[in-house]
Amino acid sequence: MASTPNVLIIGAGLAGLACARRLTNSGFACTVLEASDGIGGRVRTDRVEGFQLDRGFQVFLAGYPEAREALDYSVLELMPFHAGALVRHDGRFHVMSDPFRRPEDLPQMLLSPIGSLADKFRMLRMRRDALQQRLCSVMRDPARPTRDVLQAYDFSDAMVRHFFRPFLSGVFLESELNTPCWIFEVVWAAFCRGVTALPRDGMGAIAQQLTATLPPGTIRLNQAVQEIQGSSVVLESGEPCKADVLVVATDDAAAARLRGEHRPSALSRGSVTIYFDAPAVPQRGPWLILNGDDDGVVRTVCVLSETAPSYAPPGRALISVTVIEQMDPQSDLLQAVR
Questions:
Q1: CATH superfamily, with its number, for domain 6-44+203-258
Q2: Secondary structure (DSSP) of 52-88
Q3: I need a labelling partner for 79 at 20 to 30 A (CA). Which of 192, 205, 209, 211 fits?
């Protein structure tokens, strides 16, 4: 009988950890090599003076099918946001929420100036189609950009400008709504299907849970890979690591470098999140707040401690402010945000 293959996984982000978990549960021996000093990749949480600071504004979508299979939500102690958002427009806050989960907001939403009454009913139709995986069939091309989807549903320019663009730019980290239809369908369905939440111990708790079931010694930190040789690798320290099967679970740029592929530099997407410590809560309720005006650099604001009190010490409030657009490196970002 053939022996079980030894698997080497490069990268201890969520993809690498989920891969290791599934292979280990299937009886494979795995080793995960991680270049940094911790697990989780981009999904990590730092603890500073009693605050929990995720590395960038992040939320957990409980509606992702893969997440439901891989994680125990009860252990994460998910703390949900309201199903919707507050849109700041013309100096006032306006509620945009899911009427199936927050029917009490329906009168406010229908009367709000964010889009027309017809736009609100179009949202219901798009919600139904997303849950039935029909968005891309409506478009007949899964590669069409998200803005074409919104146009196909006949949303008004005001609805796109004041709600969809600020909301989706915070999700996809781009403001032109170029993200392909198939990605938009998956994400929109996840928003509609399950809660949007924060784990009690921060987003880093997701990686910690994935790691908890792995055998001791599976993950090796501070082990940067220099090159791939067949199914084995050589670390930057010069140490060779042999395996029968190799899995590359890094970002695209690192994967291309390790495979010796020369690609044009892809335009990366990023955001900047600034955290503020406040002595009082400026906005009550677990809301995501959108900038619905076409001014300023701020896209989203969130009082995280209103959603998850564990994110701030007693008597304090933790506020995140997220900027999507690129700014001049010489500009004063903090001043621009304020």
A1: FAD/NAD(P)-binding domain (3.50.50.60)
A2: EEESSS--EETT-HHHHHH--HHHHTEEEPPSEEEEE
A3: 211
